[in-house]
Design goal:
Layout lengths: L32 E6 L2 E8 L1 H10 L8 H12 L48 H7 L7 H15 L8 H24 L8
Antiparallel strand pairs: 1-2
Pfam families: DnaJ
Organism: Pararoseomonas baculiformis
Protein name: J domain-containing protein
């Protein structure tokens, strides 16, 4: 009796049956290697010998005949394994998770109160994204803006993060948001009247 996991391999070709012949014109060698016929029939194969399958593979171009837009679309679909995708955090994002929805058997979060998310719903449309980057609500005064900017600049400065590239990009976004809001606040501030 054979031991488990030591089964002998048997040929899938019946004994005495002829093997496939290479499909390259004029070649009589056995066609042991498969190659797809074209990109629309990837499971339909030619059978070649080693020499001809190598030549076929060198000449194979999956994207031949496609426009740059079709290639880009195909690459985008391949990045998700040809499955539909959607941005993370968009589905069900409106539902509020209360304390009863979180299982906390050790009571770690019993005393902590959730921080209210500051919204920028009433803010001018051009400032909403910038306010979200800084985590601020509207209306905002100059002192509150400056204090928040200093806090974020200290936190995301590359010197404080060992030169981390992601924190450097985050700091650039913070700088752009700060300058945009500061310019807008300058235009909204009442101008001093000039004495004649």
């Amino acid at each position: 009796m054979a031991r488990r996991g030591t089964a002998t391999l048997r040929s899938t070709v019946p004994s005495g049956a002829a093997t496939r012949i290479c499909e390259a014109p004029g070649c009589e060698a056995p066609g042991d290697f498969r190659a797809p016929r074209d990109r629309s029939r990837l499971r339909d194969y030619y059978h070649f010998c080693l020499e001809h399958v190598r030549a076929y593979n060198q000449a194979w171009d999956f994207y031949r005949g496609m426009s740059p837009e079709e290639i880009e679309q195909n690459l985008r679909e391949d990045s998700g394994w040809q499955r539909p995708t959607w941005p993370l955090g968009r589905l069900g994002g409106q539902a509020h998770i209360g304390p009863e929805g979180i299982r906390d058997p050790l009571g770690l979060f019993a005393d902590t109160k959730p921080t209210p998310k500051k919204t920028a719903k009433e803010a001018p449309p051009e400032l909403r994204a910038a306010l979200d980057v800084l985590g601020l609500g509207w209306p905002i005064d100059e002192d509150g803006l400056r204090a928040r900017y200093k806090d974020l600049a200290k936190r995301y400065h590359p010197d404080a993060n060992g030169g981390d590239r992601s924190s450097e990009e985050r700091l650039k976004d913070i700088n752009r948001a700060y300058s945009l809001i500061r310019k807008r606040l300058a235009t909204l501030a009442p101008q001093p009247s000039q004495a004649a």
